UniProtKB/TrEMBL annotation:
SMART domains according to UniProt: SERPIN
Source superkingdom: Eukaryota
Family: Belongs to the serpin family.
PROSITE patterns per UniProt: SERPIN (PS00284)
One Pfam family linked to the record: Serpin
Source organism phylogeny: Eukaryota, Metazoa, Chordata, Craniata, Vertebrata
Description of how the protein assembles with itself and partners: Forms a heterodimer with TMPRSS7. Interacts with VTN. Binds LRP1B; binding is followed by internalization and degradation. Interacts with PPP1CB. In complex with PLAU/uPA, interacts with PLAUR/uPAR. Interacts with SORL1 and LRP1, either alone or in complex with PLAU; these interactions are abolished in the presence of LRPAP1/RAP. The ternary complex composed of PLAUR-PLAU-PAI1 also interacts with SORL1. Interacts with PLAT/tPA. Also interacts with SORL1, when complexed to PLAT/tPA.
SUPFAM superfamilies per the UniProt record, alphabetical: Serpins
Domain Serpin positions: 59-418
Designated name of the protein: Plasminogen activator inhibitor 1
Length: 421
């Protein structure tokens, strides 16, 4: 079974040169920081502007997220995030639509864009080992605008399912069952208790399941326990898979002069691959490569990489990441979609104003000698804005008792653990 390893973002690995120059003998050494994983689809039918914009937006979300967690494992699904926010975009209006269009780089409300989204989802789903699903759970009392329903069907081939959010726990079980069904059972308890309430009106969903077999599997006989050096300076013994083969490899330099290496590990069929990215110098932080994460750079890598005989060593590992993306998206300038006073999703319904409450994602990924198995579930939970926002003092707080006419403070205190007598 795969085991969790390291305290970094993405996935660590060691790659050592097999032949020739001294430079190659130094390539892909064990790093104190983990490398990044990028799953790439090479089909020419996907090479369109919208796909590039979705990739860039998803990588921007990832880059922002890792800055908040530079010392821990993190894996997200850029496609899942783009999908649920794309569905939200279909229901946005006015300044909210302008903001989403500006930050995401495209609008699914523009002519021809829903068809491109549908074709992208179709091409992904046609790959062996890939399952993609979009879903919309709507409260049975909400009357959706006809244009929103039509757009969902056209772009995501999704028909809204009615659900009773006045029974939040039952609604949660229905949604978790849906995500389990569409992730091969890998993500069976997606939404935690308390996320849904009677104020919930819609939940926009994306599920992605991937099971890829390496084009050339690693031989388990060559897997050995080796030290992996973590970001905090400690080391841990991990099962290191090793293979000697011809890999697409390349050496690149950032605008700031940071050297880094990229190696591609293809899956069976070669339309899907894993790109491993790592700084050349051992003491260079992985965050130094953040600006390189964009679709144009990935295209550049692919054009410049060459087949080279290498000995690749990569840990057998598993990742399980739960991410609340509200803070990350707000830092990226998308905070208005969460605002009760500013959010405008009137293309969804005109019966009551709505705002996004949470954007949640759960990703599980396993990498072993055979290949890679991964699933993601992403949800945008949309609430009614008409409700009174709750302020709950369910954590430590200060209190002040003041005489207002004079301003005198009679008492001031701190409550860390309420006690009754």
């Amino acid at each position: 079974m795969p085991i969790p390893v390291g305290n970094g973002v993405g996935v660590p690995y060691e790659c050592m040169a097999y032949l020739f120059q001294k430079r190659f003998l130094q390539l892909f050494r064990m790093q104190s920081l983990s490398v990044l994983l990028i799953f790439a689809v090479c089909g020419s039918s996907l090479c369109n502007l919208m796909q590039e914009k979705q990739t860039d937006f998803g990588l921007q979300v990832f880059s922002e997220a890792v800055q908040s967690a530079p010392d821990r494992n993190l894996v997200i699904s850029p496609y899942g995030i783009s999908s649920v926010l794309g569905m939200a975009q279909l229901g946005a209006y006015g300044s909210t639509l302008q903001m989403l269009t500006s930050k995401m780089g495209y609008s699914l409300q523009d002519r021809g864009m829903p068809k491109l989204q549908r074709l992208l989802q179709r091409d992904l789903a046609s790959e062996d080992g890939v399952e993609v699903a979009s879903g919309v759970m709507v409260d049975r009392k909400v009357i959706l605008e006809k244009v929103f329903r039509h757009s969902l069907s056209k772009a995501f081939q999704s028909v809204p399912h009615q659900i009773d959010f006045t029974q939040p726990e039952m609604a949660r079980q229905v949604i978790n069952s849906w995500t389990s069904d569409h992730t091969g059972g890998m993500i069976s308890d997606f939404l935690p208790s308390g996320v849904l309430t009677e104020l919930t009106r819609l939940v926009l969903l994306n599920a992605l399941h991937f099971h890829g077999v390496w084009k050339t599997p690693f031989d388990p006989k060559h897997t050995r326990e080796q030290l992996f050096h973590r970001v905090n300076g400690s080391a841990v013994s991990v099962p290191m898979m090793t293979m000697t083969s011809k890999f697409n490899c390349g050496e690149f330099v950032t605008e700031d002069g940071v050297d880094y290496d990229v190696v591609e590990v293809p899956y069976e069929g070669e339309t899907l691959s894993m790109l491993l990215v790592i700084p050349f110098e051992k003491d260079v932080p992985l965050l130094a490569l953040n600006k390189e994460l964009r679709s144009s750079k990935i295209d550049q890598w692919r054009k410049q990489m060459k087949k080279t005989n290498k000995q690749l060593a990569i840990p057998r590992f598993s990742l399980d990441t739960e991410t609340d993306l509200k803070s990350t998206l707000s830092k990226m300038g998308l905070g208005d979609i969460f605002s009760q006073s500013k959010a405008d999703f009137s293309r969804i319904t005109t019966e009551e104003p709505l705002c996004v409450s949470k954007v949640l994602q759960r990703v599980k990924l396993e990498v072993n000698e055979e290949g890679t198995k991964g699933s993601s579930a992403t949800a945008a939970v949309i609430y009614s804005r008409m409700a009174v926002e709750e302020i709950k003092l369910d954590r430590p707080f200060y209190f002040l008792i003041q005489h207002k006419p004079t301003g005198a403070l009679l008492f001031s205190g701190q409550v860390n653990q309420p006690q009754e007598h």
